[in-house]
Amino acid sequence: MNDAARTSRQGYQHIRSVGWRGGAFLGIIALAWSTAPAAGPPDELPQMQWEVIPNADSSIEALLERADRAAAQNLFIDADQLYRMVLEREPANNEAYRSLLALWENRRLPVDSDALENVSALLPEFTQLKSKHFVIVSDAPGYVIQGHATRLERTLHEFNRDANRLDLRPLPLRYRLVCVLFDERDDYAAFARSHDDIHADWIAGYYTPKHDRAVFYNAHSNPGVLKAHDDLANLESNVQDARQQARQASRKGEASNARQMHREIEQYRQHLNQQRREVEQFTEHLSTATTVHETVHQLMFHTQVQSPYVEYPFWISEGLATAFETESISTSFGPDFEFDLRRDAFEELVRNEQLVDLQSFVTIIRPPTGDPNAVHILYHQSYALVTWMHRYRRAGLVKYMNLMRSHEPGRLTEPENVRIFERAFGNIAQLERAWLKEERSRID
Predict the structure, then answer these.
(1) Cα–chain-centroid distance for residue 307?
(2) Cβ 133 vs Cβ 160: under 8 Å
(3) This prediction's pTM
(4) Residues 308, 32 contacting (CB under 8 angstroms)
(5) Which residues contact 38 (CB under 8 A, 6 or more apart)?
(6) pLDDT tens string 273-295
(7) pLDDT tens digit string along 169-192?
(8) Of 50, 175, 232, 352, which is most buried, counting CB atoms within 10 Å of its CB?
(9) Where are the alpha helices (DSSP H) in 136-254?
């Protein structure tokens, strides 16, 4: 029985070791700068009603005047697009931002979007569940879809809480965001390869700006989870065999031996039940962390806290997403709360001196392919850097986000990434020393 218990524990440790590398945005972030999320007006709202569409030379004042006039005349689409035009050119324009928020206040988000139309054509047999801010397209059981909807809405709430506290000025959503949830991992992987050019099957979820959708699979079909359930089934079979042996001993008059066997079976049963609870808990944690991670990517671009027209370095995009990861949505989460699995992994990297030097780190756009350990390091280091900045360099973090948001569209060179980083945070070497001094003091 001790060997069987060890087998169960090894199975559980296996899913813990592979699971937290699954919530990745790997390979997708590069699409953001070249292909913006779909931004056309929702089908269920009236189309543009301008008599003359403003040209690129229209002044900010002229755009604001026309936007205010459109809002006063209840020309919602016109006003919305005009205010957004102002904010694309002047992200810090307070008048346009306040007016846009007021325009959307208490307004119900439309359901229809290009993203939903596209995925509905690809998956016509899937169910659609509509929550307040999302549409989930899925073939999973209803209770699984509902649980996913709850995680999405909680992520939006915590994202808005943090973005507003930092005054990052998230723009209001224009329609309910699209999420695809497959019940089976193999179906998810086939869809990712065929329609989103995603070939990294180990990724448990992703967001693609090109098609404006987040895509996931039910964590119960995760390979590590399936292996753990197989191990548990084998252990249950051992319990049944042991019970049969105890009954045989009792029939043979071996009462003392039978009692001892029943005591061991009861201990084994308690252990098995505990293992089941741990596997189910892990499955829930995996699903929660992955959903939160990819939804944060989706929200960052839809609200234009991150510009959809600029290619961001890896550290900030993945640092922000990992900083929101959590095992539970029952309490607040985000960069002001630690996520122990990321924290523990990062501290192990510090002890082993495996961190990438900051000068190189802040210029990395895509992680290296074919090197899981390098990817592992980059994710955890991004998490730790962003959460530290959120505590101790908050003004610099906000300045960095605003500089990137107002940057001209396109791909930044390595020197440009360094220049913008130092404009926001100061000298990289000095910041690296301050950061690692703090991190090492937490470990010692």
Answers:
(1) 17
(2) no
(3) 0.81
(4) yes
(5) 113, 114, 115, 212
(6) 888 888 777 778 888 999 999 99
(7) 999 999 999 999 999 999 999 999
(8) 175
(9) 142-165, 185-196, 223-251
